[in-house]
Specification:
The chain is α+β, with helices and mostly antiparallel strands and 743 residues long. Helix content is 48%, strand content 14%. The chain contains 18 helices and 23 strands. It has a five-stranded antiparallel beta sheet with strand order 1-19-3-15-16, with no helix packed on it. Strands 8-7-11-12-13 form a five-stranded antiparallel beta sheet. A hairpin with a 2-residue loop joins β7 and β8. α5 packs across α9, α12 runs antiparallel to α15 and α15 runs antiparallel to α17. The longest helix is centred in the last third of the chain and has 57 residues.
Length: 743
């Protein structure tokens, strides 16, 4: 806004005069703004109501159109402590007899208490007493299996865990821990843990039933078997695989041991091998370009320090400058261990460069370099180019072989035949390998014997382990034996939950039509219908707010927040008063519920025929009441005809409700179809309102331009007046001067 100096000659308060003149003109713009505000409020109110109507349409109303809604069944058991029952609509009414012979259970294994583990010092050396004997302590998850007391894990001992369609293999070496063993159990889909306080393993299948029993066995591989296993694992990068891919590899190798054809698994093995090849290539490329990035950081280090100090290129950076810069970046000097200042500075600078280089290689240009290298390979020439770029940074590279590798295609051509050969050798060598040597000797130190399904096999020394067998639920249903791997059995729409065996007792299950459930469904619908209709009636019949207009900012400042809210609330409450669209929806609700349903035998029924009526008080606007319902204070003393009809003639009730609600559903569906005025699934003219709001916006903008021009015109007119007055004043002064000079 320009600064204007006004009234200097006339002495008039020009600003106030123009403001008063403009105030009258702005009234027209304000009226348009008020219309826009009211329309925005109206659109918001309609959007909220639209959501409620649509939710009613898709949920309650839609459900009540379906005959299946009224076909609910109830199931009762003569002994809920043994068998509970639930009936779906598919269950036939009648009585059923049930005897429970067995309840499904999950297989559980509790190991014997472990006898301890040889202790090791901080260097990993065995701790021994004065006589050179091992000293034993409690077992932890970090304990190595070879250190367990009475351990019989020789080179190539393989523990096989099989559960369902999963088989995982644990090849025990000098570094395999108790935690590794538990991890393999869990990878097989079991629930396993080692309790350090109890010094026992607790193992359970995750699901009940015989089909979900598991086995834990062990056997020793020959040197040749170990070699072919190592060769295959090395090619697929077994040790670096994710847990999921390790499980995949274990399953494949277990399958090959069981005689599964190489052709069936070669594709998966090849994929794992090529992925590992790409991973190694990416690691090499990343190492090379990280060195390049670090050198770049170090070579530019002094320039970055100068930039931070806002110094030009001629400034010589001091050690103090470098220390301050590094400190600001979070790298303080560590002078512990007798380091000199220079050594501590060099170390901090190196850490800073490592961190910055790590950031750089994650940026697009370096990511592109690495991806290109993984695809096309890295040669000695590429490494040499990076060596040259290192300059005097002090960053060094290892031998070329640490970084060079062939292109992806050449690696594939190299890896694929190797995998094919290794897989065949593994198959030929391991297909007759027995994963269970029959003794379970290697498992003794784990407090376990051989675990083969529901059998407990203890070796000669005994383990003290306990096994709960996997079992299926077995019942006799109306004289027929049925089984399930869970405690739930569904039979022709009847859901039985088995809790315990019944012995000689017969549990009787009774299935009946659930009239109380249907009654509650109807009551819930009536409640939702009434709530929505009541809100629409209130909005449609709202009082007038013609004496209320949208408040200006000045008017709001003169009122309290509660007064403003009350004022605006009065306007908002009246926005849908006598709204034709809302009136049509209200009429549709009422008229649909007043329809008559004609049965196939010609008899006619209405809501009143089944005990549902509107109030005699017209002010309620057509709300429904279930006569005789205990929650309806007005009609609770009446006879509950609806309950009686549900017991005696449920088809009449179903016919009335499905017919009436279907009529309302179809009408609402038609009302919310898309057209030029409204969008699909919308009951009000949202498109029209959006267009009107846009028009108001344009009109307000045009008014603002007009008012700005008008204001400028007023200022120019007053300015011209001031100029004229100034000229007159100047002429008077000149005349006075001349007259004075004549004296």
């Amino acid at each position: 806004m320009p600064i204007r100096m006004t009234g200097l000659n006339s002495g008039l308060d020009t600003e106030s005069i123009i403001a008063a003149l403009m105030s009258a003109q702005r009234t027209k713009q304000t009226k348009v703004e008020n219309k826009r505000t009211k329309l925005e409020w109206k659109k918001e109110q309609w959007a909220s109501l639209n959501t409620k109507i649509y939710n009613f349409y898709t949920n309650s109303l839609s459900k009540m159109r379906m005959a299946s809604t009224y076909m609910t069944k109830a199931a009762t058991s003569s002994n809920n402590s043994k068998v509970t029952a639930k009936a779906t609509t598919a269950a036939a009414t009648g009585s059923y007899s049930v005897k429970v012979k067995q309840v499904a259970s999950a297989q559980k294994v509790t190991s014997g208490k472990l006898k301890g583990a040889a202790l090791r010092d901080e260097k990993g050396e065995l701790v021994k007493d004065s006589n050179g004997n091992k000293i034993y302590g409690d077992v932890t998850s970090k304990t190595k299996l070879v250190d367990l007391k009475d351990a019989a894990f020789g080179n190539g001992t393989q523990i096989t865990v099989a559960a369902g369609d999963k088989t995982v293999l644990l090849e025990v070496d000098d570094n395999t821990t108790v935690g590794d063993f538990v991890g393999k159990l869990n990878n097989a889909g079991l629930t396993a843990s080692f309790d350090e306080k109890q010094q026992r393993f607790f193992i359970s299948s995750s699901k009940s039933g015989k089909d979900n029993q598991f086995t834990i066995t062990s056997a020793s591989m020959t040197t040749e078997q170990q070699n072919v296993t190592k060769a295959l694992k090395d090619l697929i990068g077994y040790d670096s695989l994710s847990a999921a891919n390790k499980n995949t590899a274990d399953n494949i190798m277990a399958g090959l041991q069981a005689g599964k054809s190489v052709d069936d698994v070669i594709e998966k093995l090849t994929t794992l091998a090529n992925d590992y090849s790409d991973k190694k290539a990416k690691e090499k490329a990343t190492a090379l370009y990280t060195a390049e990035a670090k050198a770049s950081v170090l070579n530019k280090f002094d320039d970055e320090v100068r930039k931070s100090l806002k110094k030009d290129a001629g400034y010589t950076v001091t050690d103090e400058d470098k220390i301050k810069y590094l400190k600001d970046k979070g790298f303080k000097l560590d002078k512990s261990g007798g380091k000199t200042d220079a050594q501590a500075l060099a170390e901090a600078k190196d850490k800073y460069a490592d961190k910055e280089a790590e950031k750089l290689v994650k940026k697009d240009d370096y990511k592109a370099k690495i991806e290109n290298a993984v695809s096309n390979g890295l040669t000695g020439t590429d490494v040499y180019a990076v060596r040259k770029s290192l300059g005097s940074s002090g960053v060094t590279l290892g031998p070329d072989t640490d970084y060079t590798f062939a292109s992806h295609m050449d690696r594939v051509l190299d890896v694929n035949p190797k995998i094919d050969d290794a897989a065949k050798k593994y198959y030929n060598t391991m297909k007759d390998f027995q994963s269970d040597d029959g003794s379970g000797a290697a498992l003794t130190a784990l407090g376990l014997g051989r675990v083969t399904g529901d059998e407990v096999h203890e070796n000669t020394s005994g383990t003290g382990m306990a096994v709960i067998e996997a079992a299926d639920t077995e019942i006799e249903y109306n004289g027929v034996t049925l089984t399930s791997d869970t405690t739930n059995i569904t039979i022709a729409g009847l859901e039985l939950n088995v809790l315990s065996t019944t012995g000689d007792e017969t549990v009787n299950i009774s299935v009946t039509n659930d009239t109380s459930g249907v009654y509650d469904t109807i009551k819930e619908f009536v409640s939702e219908y009434n709530a929505l209709l009541k809100e629409m009636n209130t909005l449609y019949n709202a009082g007038s707010a013609k004496d209320y207009d949208v408040l200006s900012d000045e008017e709001k400042d003169a009122m309290s927040d509660s007064e403003v809210e009350k004022w605006e609330g009065k306007i908002k409450d009246s926005l849908l008063r006598r709204d034709s669209t809302l009136g049509a929806i209200v009429s549709s609700f009422k008229n649909s519920m007043m329809n008559v349903y004609t049965r196939g035998d010609g008899k006619k029924y209405a809501l009143s025929s089944i005990g549902i009526s509107t109030s005699k008080d017209y002010k309620e606007g057509g709300l429904l009441h279930i006569l005789g319902d205990e929650d309806d204070s007005e009609y609770a003393d009446k006879t509950n005809l609806l309950k009686k009809m549900l017991d005696e003639d449920p088809d009449a009730v179903i016919g009335v409700f499905t017919s009436l609600t279907d009529t309302l559903y179809a009408d609402l569906q038609k009302k919310m179809s898309a057209n030029s005025m409204s969008s699909a699934l919308t009951f009000y003219n949202d498109k029209e309102m959006a267009s009107q709001l846009s028009d108001y916006k344009d009109e307000i903008s045009k008014w603002q331009s007009r008012l700005d021009e008008m204001e400028d015109k007023y200022y120019k007119q007053f300015s011209a007046m001031e100029t004229a007055l100034a000229n007159i004043q100047s002429q008077q002064n000149s005349l006075a001067s001349m007259l004075g000079g004549g004296n």
